[in-house]
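Working notes for the structural subgroup meeting. M.R. asked for a predicted model of this chain before we commit to crystallization trials. I am recording the input and output together here so anyone reviewing the notebook later can reproduce the run.

Input as submitted:
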Amino acid sequence: MKKNDLYLRTQGEEADFERGSVFFVGTATVIISYGGFKILTDPNFLHAGDHVHLGYGLTSERLTNPAIEINDLPDIDFMLLSHLHGDHFDRVAEARLNKTMPIVTTAHAAQYLEGKAFRPPVALDTWEDVTIRKGEGAWVRVTAMPGTHAPGALRKILPPVMGSMLEFGDAGDEEPRVRMYITGDTLVHDALEEIPQRYPEIDLALLHLGGTRVLGIMVTMDAKQGVEAMKIVDPKAAIPIHYNDYSVFKSTLEDFKKAVNEAGFEDRVHYLAHGETHQFEVSTARQR
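Returned structure, recorded in token form:
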């Protein structure tokens, strides 16, 4: 099912379809720049020593600082929120983000945000999509991907989560020029197998890792599952995020690097420290 398109104002800027970038702020917070769009994901701007509430009396301490402060964000076109958890949308974001910013998220998170006076978000169920356009030219289609945040009964006490497929194009394009998959806080599960059936060519995947554990149960992918997800969706390139920021994260980046090397994927994975940027180029052949 398709949601109504969103139309954004243009500032006269030209859309660059030859190159793009992913700037890593920390946790699952990145700024994606491509095709004239700047997209903020899962805003988390707490500092080391701050705590987030995970529900049912559970808390976690932040161990790192964000690469930039929320007031230093560039002009953002829209925000993509995988789910409503304190390490993905924190009290700083709630207080200081522009409440008129378009947001694409789950129905659960949308209801909360609208209640906090944010512009009514676009709420997507799995496989639903919305196209966001700038003027008559650049567009990005966001489709909700399947995600499960926990196994069994624990699923009932954690918020619903979605992954996202971002497909970028220009006026007249029938096929996207770039396809980017963001896993969200999911575990590897059977529904992921449908992603490569629908999207056989994925340029870049952002993997939420960390092996997060709640009550001793893993609720985000660890190193082994991160590599398994790569095998399933088969992206040309991947970037691990969400791996070292909170005390509930139990699977280290070193664990993932080891698993990547054992799988022979080392030439496909780009590692970013907080504040670093991955630059990518898009070939003319893919664009057309």
